[in-house]
Amino acid sequence: MGKIVVEDSRAGSIIKEGMKVVVGNGERMRLWSEFFVDSNPLKIVFPRIYALASNKNGVIAGFGRWNENQWAWNVNLRKPSFNWEHEQQNSFLQVLDSIVLRIKIKDELVWGLCPSGIFKVGYFRRCLEEVNGVAHDNAKLLWKRIIPPKVELFSWQLFRGRVMVRDVLNHFGCAQGLSLKCPLCKGGSETVDHLFLLCPWSWDLWSRCMSFWR
Hints:
Blueprint: H1 2-7, H2 9-18, E1 19-22, H3 31-34, E2 36-37, E3 40-41, H4 42-45, H5 47-52, E4 64-67, E5 70-73, H6 86-98, E6 108-111, H7 121-132, H8 149-159, H9 166-171, H10 192-198, H11 200-213
Antiparallel strand pairs: 1-6, 2-3, 4-5
Helix pairs in contact: 2-7, 10-11
């Protein structure tokens, strides 16, 4: 998948434009780098406030507290802002007030181009074909001999959904006595989509990769 993005910028654009994070309880989404205003993270929209912030890498839930099911913001600054920074600070507070947290719902990473909101390789490929106007065989991009053979093979298996994750092993009757839970997050079943995208560990990795595309 990584080489597809490099070889075809349209593929990267489709993934980037489709991905978005839906705020729930704020326990997974980083405030400054993963909450966006007009396609830009808060640290870019409000650079002065970000520079003054004591916590630059915390999740949303770390910038306030619940009080009788009402969320109260508390963003600590290292020093008081200057008068000329007040306008930006007021705008920042307005954005915070627009964020609706839901205490019993987890933050979700969704892919808006798929009706289910869940990233699917097959659906991504169809979207890419529609953008190109013709059938676009992304698999050919994996065999250019510009990455190690083992990486090519693994990428091909991932693209085809043939990676031997626990869900696939169970399908073939090879997972007797083996838990189907993801060994990284201990949450959802270890499917290809979960392991490489939906798992919180994968989410963190993809978030870092996405930051390089902006």
